[in-house]
Amino acid sequence: MNSFPKPVIDSMADRAMRLHHMLWHTARDDWMIYTPEQQEVFRHHGWEPPRPSWTARDPVTGKRSLEKNNGSGEDFLFMHRQMIVAVDEILAGLGNPQHPRVAGWPVIPSPEDTEYPVPPPFDIPGDSQFTNAILGAKTRESFNLIRTDEATYTNPAQLRERTLSRLGAEIEFGIHNRMHLRWAAQMPEYRPGGDEFSVDPVWDDAGYNWLADTYSAHVNPIFWKLHGWVDARIDDWMAANELTGPVPWSFDPPWSGPTGHDPHHHPVVRLVSQARSGNGEAEALRSSLGDMETTVEHLKRAGVGEATRFPVSDDV
């Protein structure tokens, strides 16, 4: 069902949730190519990623490599599992029998699927490179790669060959990012990316749910179908390795941004869903939002640009 209850959509469209999701992805993806001065801005505001997702540029080729073994893949899996757990709590409180919990795709939809059709290609004004990336993700060849990856990451023998860190990194910058671009649909307008953060409140409307933007992707119901699929791979990995009980994360806990009072829960989602006028969650949410607003302003002054949105790596 290509819909989600309004309380979930409203929570995901909250400005604090948008800023957190954008900053988390940006800090991890481009940490190694920021200047020391730019890194210090992130560090000062608590946004230094302990495990960047990409290396620095090779001095000869200029290319960057995906970090498969430093634990950043676990951070990816953990943070999005936190989001799912928090959204499941919202759904449980609503008691909607059509949406008891986040339910990922059991099988990634084919090009012939009528319930989750792939939106047609479209142009992003002034950004031919990203236009081409989205166009490529919508092709039959791209779907064939998705099917190949799907078979790999649901195969117990293949899962046993991978650490949880490697699994998360490969999924994030392979099939996951490809799905974000593949199901991205044309919008009336697109939030500018690249040179500087553009977080004008005009983009906070719940209608801005573009799947190809970290500021808005989680507002889109498709986000939860594809991330439900991703999250199920953790359980498959556990089963393939004959593990039971809590996930054996290598870090306690993995990184999901500046932590609140309970680092094992998402720093923002629960606050957004539980904030009521005058309660402690509302005050904590105001404080978190204020901190992130200040972070963005300081990053702008330092000339920090947003990372490439949902890049697909050739090295997975």
Keywords:
single chain, 316 residues, mainly alpha, 11 helices, 0% strand
Task: Provide an overview of this structure.
- The protein is mostly helical.
- It has helices at 6-13, 15-30, 36-44, 72-94, 128-137, 140-152, 156-160, 164-182, 221-240, 269-274, 280-301.
- The longest helix has 23 residues, at 72-94.
- The two termini are 31 Å apart.
- The mean pLDDT is 94.
Summarize, please.
With 316 residues, the protein is mainly α.
Largest sheet: none
Task: Name the average pLDDT.
Answer: 94
Ranges where pLDDT stays below 50 over 5 or more residues in a row are none
Secondary structure: helix percent: 40-55%
Instruction: Provide the β-strand percentage band.
Output: under 5%
Distance, first to last CA: 31 Å
Number of helices: 11
Number of strands: 0
Order of helices and strands: HHHHHHHHHHH
Summing up helix and strand content along with how strands pair, one would put the structural category as mainly alpha
Q: Identify the overall geometry.
A: globular
Cα-based radius of gyration, to the nearest Å: 19 Å
